[in-house]
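Action item from last week, closing it out:
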Amino acid sequence: MILLASTSSFVTFLAIAVFGFIFVVASSILGDVFDHGDFGHDADGHGGGPSLFSSRILSVFVTAFGAFGAIGIHLGYGVGVSTAMGFGGGVLFAGVIYAFASFLYSQQASSHVRTSDLVGNTAQVSVAIPKGGVGQVRCTLGDTVVEKVARASSDQEIPVNTLVKIQNLVGDVVVVDRAE
């Protein structure tokens, strides 16, 4: 009878581990299944990045819980101790995955450039700006090269390759003056 109860607990923990592992594989292949709705959002206000409740992190927790629980039963511990071992192992492994995902998220860079960042920068005319008309300028912000339609602030012609200073924005058009 004790062997049957022990085997039953062992099989239960293994089934939990297998279910979690299948979910890890499925979410890796199909993407975060629950993260496409409102199910996987974290409520701690972290402003982006991985969630503690993402399907991958939860499935790693379930897999480790089942595996460590099965190990506890196999080593001869009772269901309570094995459950505690499973919970501890689940928290540990889910925490490691969360920390790794947070690290990867923090390494991302954005190439988003706000147009307002261009004001005050020097640019080079890439398409001549005719008197009273528009041309184009090229400006570098960090590692990003931005091309914008440009108009001269005074009614003057500015030839190609002339350095200009961006004075203002009018919609999507930058207003420029010759650089001094």
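Closing note: The first strand starts at residue 122 and ends at 127.
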